[in-house]
Specification:
The structure holds two protein chains of two kinds. Chain A is an all-alpha fold. Chain A is built from 14 helices and no strands. The radius of gyration of chain B is 25 Å and the shape is elongated. Classes of the chains: A mainly alpha, B alpha+beta.
């Protein structure tokens, strides 16, 4: 018996009305509201908690009785958490610059030029990301140790570049493929060298892709935890993602301080996304439409 | 300060070239582009090669409009891209303005190219697109302005100069692409199917304009198309390519009247030439084309051609263009059994100026061929009709080689 047959005891109009309600604005809004709640609730809880004192956390009310920024002061200044923030900013920015500097020309070369072993090289780039990074923790630790880079910013940055470069090469290559090759060719006939064609024609068109790659690299390295944890020991090199653990003690958790630290960790990423969001959208959909 | 004078060897420098063995040194003064024994093989991943162009040699005269035409995959675009410098020839050389440019970058060749999809720079305005080739070559600002405005006027796009390409219609984009090539005053224009993205009406209109522009700028133009009508209307000479090989090179009318082989005969002309299902047999000291349903007596020049030809006449195919098959009722000449056949009319397509008849010798409809008759014809569908054949316009093709033995 088909699905249609089993409906037969309901007439067509009844069924239509049922689906009109299901697809109508009320249900849609309900689903949307639920989704938003699931996403926002923990965030809201965190912000509210950060406005309490460590002692007041155990009060039953969710809303802070007398809101205070004391936790922020305690975390940033007294606990030297600002060092971790500076570290994170240095690590993420440097990583983003290095990754873009390497991924853009590499992606362009993979998209445009045929050379011996080009496919093999490209697969090689991707291969490094095909197994879980945790498998490389021990060799990475040994290498950084013998290079005397343990607990230093360069030690963390190298790890971040290693982690995100292959993905960005891949994204940039696909982005360059979406830019018609006739454009570079036309530029070369018009009088450009390869490099000039790239700079005057291809690069301006690749800007959304470039922005998307930069933002992704920044966000990914901002939140990366595993390698940073292994390589760093003190606030001299620890990024936020690791330093947050300082507020989880052996016997107790300083909930308000932890919440304040987490909110501080989120703010820069929110700012970056808000500033560059239009690039992210156009970067991810570029090439979908014929120029 | 055009491209031509920027290259080291201008046209005047040619006579002074010391190397007297080079083709350019004994080149005709009028030769502008010389394609010399060009072969291009594309390497496949499995190690084999695909021959795109084979042993192609053409001299293109200064100011000439040369059209490469052929079906897709015939090597016409590859040839054009090799002249532009976007592909490296596997063998052979390219000469422009008497200089061997085979090893030069595209920018040093003094050529400008119009691409099939226009390749306008989407992030630049029309003005910036037009001035780009000049800016990149460091022309002085006032000269750039002057040339851009002159070109925009020539192409009637002056009011579009501050728009982005995405805000233009297909026809306007086409003009900008053309303008970007013209503004440089290059030695040679290369055009890769520039009209194929336009709708039918606009294509015909732009075709006429291209003709006019070419007359005004008088620059050597190499034009690639798969459309034989474009080739016929635009070309001073047309080169028909098939499977990487040059079939015939000549003025359009010559290609039409005297196709050297069956491929050219079938490719040039719309509707294409009919190849009749007949046997050529000896009769009464001459020959006739005979099928189960009719005989056509061959005229004296074809008889002589067969006599001069060594092969077996049975290995020949008769070719007749549709317009050489007419309604016998409307032909002034007296109809005789020698030039008249009876055929079953299957479909009539009135084109206004003519009617295309799809006919076959029998009602079953095998061996269909096309006749192009006057609109006054009173022939009806699904009836037998008397058709008169202009015998002086018939061709004979060797089945094995495809050669036209009647020219």
């Amino acid at each position: 018996m088909s699905v249609e047959d089993s409906y037969e005891w309901l007439d067509y109009r009844t069924r239509q009305r049922f689906w009109d309600v299901v697809e109508g604005p009320m249900i849609v809004h309900l689903v949307l509201a639920l989704s938003v709640f699931i996403v926002v609730a923990p965030l809201l809880w965190e912000v509210l908690t950060s406005l309490k004192t460590n002692e007041a956390v155990y009060n039953l009310s969710v809303i802070p009785q007398d809101p205070t920024l004391g936790s922020y002061y305690n975390v940033l200044i007294e606990q030297n958490y600002w060092r971790a923030m500076v570290n994170s900013i240095i690590i993420s920015t440097t990583t983003t610059v290095i990754v873009l500097t390497l991924a853009v020309p590499a992606g362009y070369a993979f998209s445009r030029f045929r050379f011996p072993f080009d496919t093999a090289l490209f697969v090689g780039v991707l291969l490094s990301r095909l197994f879980p990074p945790i498998g490389l923790i021990i060799p990475y630790y040994r290498i950084m140790s013998s290079l005397n880079l343990l607990n230093t910013l360069p030690g963390v940055i190298i790890a971040q570049v290693y982690l995100w470069l292959p993905l960005m090469v891949y994204i940039m290559r696909n982005f360059f493929i979406s830019i018609p090759q006739e454009l570079d060719e036309s530029a070369r006939v018009d009088g450009c060298t390869h490099l000039q064609a790239f700079r005057h024609v291809v690069l301006p068109l690749a800007r959304p892709g470039l922005a998307a790659c930069g933002i992704l690299t920044f966000l990914y390295s901002w939140r990366e935890f595993l390698f940073s944890l292994i390589v760093t020991r003190t606030l001299a090199a620890q990024p936020i993602s690791v330093a947050v653990y300082r507020f989880v003690g052996d016997v107790s958790v300083a909930w308000a301080s932890l919440a304040a630290a987490c909110v501080l960790a989120i703010i820069p990423t929110v700012l970056v996304v808000l500033t560059f969001q239009r690039y992210i959208v156009s970067g991810l959909t570029a090439g979908a439409l014929k120029q | 300060m055009s491209d031509t004078t920027q290259s080291q060897d201008g046209p005047d420098a040619r006579g002074e070239q010391p190397d007297s063995d080079t083709p350019a040194s004994h080149a005709d003064e009028e030769i502008n582009v010389r394609i010399d024994d060009l072969t291009k093989v594309y390497d496949e991943d499995d190690g084999s090669g695909v021959v795109a162009v084979e042993d192609l040699s053409i001299d293109i005269r200064r100011g000439e409009f040369l059209v490469f035409v052929g079906p897709s995959g015939c090597g016409k675009t590859t040839t054009l891209r090799t002249v532009a410098g976007l592909e490296t020839p596997t063998e052979g050389r390219i000469w422009i303005e008497g200089e061997d440019v085979s090893d030069l970058e595209p920018r040093d060749r003094g050529v400008a190219m119009v691409f099939q999809n226009y390749a306008l720079y989407p992030h630049m305005t029309v003005r910036q697109n037009l001035s780009f080739p000049l800016r990149i070559r460091n022309y002085p600002g006032d000269e750039i302005t002057e040339r851009v405005e002159h070109t925009a006027e020539l192409l009637e796009i002056s009011e579009l100069l501050d728009r982005k390409p995405s805000a233009l219609s297909g026809g306007q984009q086409q003009r900008v692409a053309l303008g970007r090539a013209i503004v440089r005053e290059p030695s040679v224009f290369l055009m890769d199917e520039p009209l194929s993205n336009l709708d039918a009406k606009l294509r015909v209109q732009m075709r006429t304009e291209l003709n006019e522009i070419h007359k005004r700028v008088e620059k050597t133009t190499i034009y690639v198309t798969h459309d034989q009508a474009e080739a016929m209307t635009l070309g001073d000479r047309v080169a028909v390519l098939n499977q990487g090989q040059l079939q015939q090179l000549g003025p359009p009318q010559e290609l039409y009247d005297e196709p050297v082989n069956r491929f050219v005969a079938g490719f040039i002309g719309e509707p294409p030439m009919n190849f009749m299902p007949t046997d050529i047999v000896a009769a009464d000291g001459g020959y006739e084309a005979r099928s189960d349903h009719f005989e056509i007596e061959l005229p004296d020049d074809l008889v002589a051609a067969i006599d001069d030809w060594d092969g077996d006449p049975a290995a020949l195919t008769l070719g007749i263009r549709p317009e050489d098959i007419n309604d016998a009722q409307l032909v002034g000449d007296p109809t005789t059994s020698a030039n008249t056949i009876e055929a079953y009319v299957r479909v009539i397509e009135p084109m206004g100026s003519d009617k295309y008849l799809t006919v076959s010798p029998t009602a079953e409809g095998r061996h269909e061929f096309t006749a192009r008759v006057s609109p006054d014809s009173e022939i009806h569908e699904d009836e037998f009709a008397e058709l008169s054949i202009t015998r002086s316009k018939m061709h004979l093709f060797d089945d094995e080689t495809g050669q036209n033995i009647s020219i």
